[in-house]
Design brief:
The complex is a heterodimer of chains A (107) and B (204). With 107 residues, chain A is mainly alpha-helical. Chain A has one helix at 3-103. The radius of gyration of chain A is 44 Å and the shape is rod-shaped. Chain B has a four-stranded mixed beta sheet with strand order 2-1-3-4. Chain B is 72% helix and 10% strand. Chain B is rod-shaped. Chain B is of the alpha+beta class. Chain B has two domains: 1-101; 105-202, ATP synthase, E subunit, C-terminal (hypothetical protein PF0899 fold), CATH 3.30.2320.30. Chain B contains five helices and four strands; from the N terminus they run H-H-E-H-H-E-E-E-H. The relative contact order of chain B is 0.08. Chain B has helices at 2-101, 105-118, 133-136, 139-145, 182-202; strands spanning 126-130, 153-156, 166-171, 177-181. Classes of the chains: A mainly alpha (107), B alpha+beta (204). Chains A and B meet through helix 1 of A and helix 1, helix 2 and helix 5 of B.
Chain lengths: 107, 204
């Protein structure tokens, strides 16, 4: 085998090796890129899920607050009814007391 | 010749084998890197999700606090307004009652007693008494019931008061006046008795 032939064979092998490396590098880049894409997708899903859950929690909290407010309003109305009943029972006594005060004593 | 060819083939094979090994290594590294990328981005995403949840929980806490505190404030205000309305009702009731009482003989008696009690506060011997038109008709009856010190003289103002009842005492020159009309006494009672009336009405 001539030295030219030897060099040619080795160059061929080196070219093939370079091609293998280049293909591997391309594959590696593809793996990294896919991983990034996949990870970004997962990230989006995780954040989207958190936002959806957050919205649900907020909605439930609003409903719960609304329920508590409504309960408080009912309690207030009951207290007012009770106050009115109590005042109605004692109104004559209160009026009498005021009249006495204004007239400077019992008449 | 054949031995030379074998050597070259072996060298070529070694070059290819080395390249393949390097390729495998690079792909393995890329896979490892990919795992790290996924894991890092996942951690970032979870941290961001936690932040979103924490923000929501804070919003929930503020929402509950704000809505409930506003509702409690409104409730207290409503109860207070109702109490004030009922107290006002008692004072209105008293005014209506007074409008009836002023027609009675007992009222004239009470009027005399009040003039008797308040007149000394003027510290004058000549006192002017202003009454409304109806009570002026009873001035003799009132004077008859008065028991004042001998030096105190009463003069009735000929101009009737525009009032439900009661009187205004003054010095003759009207420099000092004591307004004891029933409206004024009711106003004073309102200021002084709100707490007492609240106690009577609501038992508190």
């Amino acid at each position: 085998m001539s030295s030219v032939e030897v060099i040619k064979r080795i160059r061929e092998a080196e070219d093939a090796a370079r091609k293998i490396i280049e293909e591997a590098e391309a594959e590696a880049n593809k793996i990294r890129l896919n991983a990034r894409r996949e990870a970004e997708k997962v990230k989006e899903e995780i954040i989207k899920k958190a936002k959806v859950e957050g919205d649900e929690i907020l909605k439930k909290a609003e409903e719960e607050a609304k329920r508590k407010v409504s309960e408080l309003e009912k309690e207030t109305n009951l207290k007012i009814t009770f106050l009115r009943e109590k005042a109605a029972k004692n109104m004559d006594k209160a009026v009498k007391k005021i009249v006495e005060e204004v007239l400077g004593g019992k008449i | 010749m054949s031995s030379g060819l074998t050597v070259i083939s072996k060298i070529s094979e070694e070059i290819i084998a080395e390249a393949q090994a390097e390729a495998r290594k690079r792909i393995e590294e890329a896979k490892k890197e990919a795992e790290e990328i996924v894991s890092r981005i996942k951690v970032e995403a979870e941290a961001e999700a936690e932040k979103i949840k924490a923000k929501v929980m804070e919003e929930v806490r503020l929402l509950e606090a704000r809505k409930l505190s506003e509702a409690r404030r409104q409730s207290s205000l409503k109860i207070l307004e109702e109490k004030n309305r009922l107290i006002e009702e008692a004072f209105n009731g008293a005014l209506n009652q007074l409008k009836k009482i002023v027609e009675t003989e007992e009222y004239i008696q009470s009027l005399s007693k009040l003039i008797e009690a308040i007149a000394p506060q003027l510290g004058e011997s000549n006192i002017k008494v202003a009454l409304n038109r109806r009570d002026l008709k009873h001035k003799d009856n009132i004077v008859k019931r008065l028991s004042l010190p001998g030096n105190v003289k009463i003069v009735f103002d000929s101009h009737p008061l525009n009032s439900v009842g009661g009187f205004i005492l003054s010095t003759l020159d009207e420099r000092i006046r004591i307004n004891e009309t029933l409206e004024e006494r009711l106003k004073a009672a309102k200021r002084a008795m709100k707490k007492d009336i609240s106690k009577i009405l609501f038992g508190e």
